[in-house]
Amino acid sequence: MAKSLKDEIIEQVDQLADPQRRQVLDFARQLATPSGTPGRELLRFKGLISQTDLDAISRAIEEHCETIDPHGW
Fold it and tell me: Which of 3, 7, 55, 70 is the most exposed place for a label (fewest CB within 10 A)?
């Protein structure tokens, strides 16, 4: 029977020395901690960009973001 992902993680962690286990724990905690700015804090920016500018941004994205320049960076 296939092992669950959790079982595989535990199996690997069991093979580590305590300092490495601490690193794994710290990393797992970091992954579980939300990062970034909550959306409600961004509401103060609502309406600051004109509809004309938003339309221009949308057009630029549609026209240029899905193209590949083989000689670009």
Answer: 70
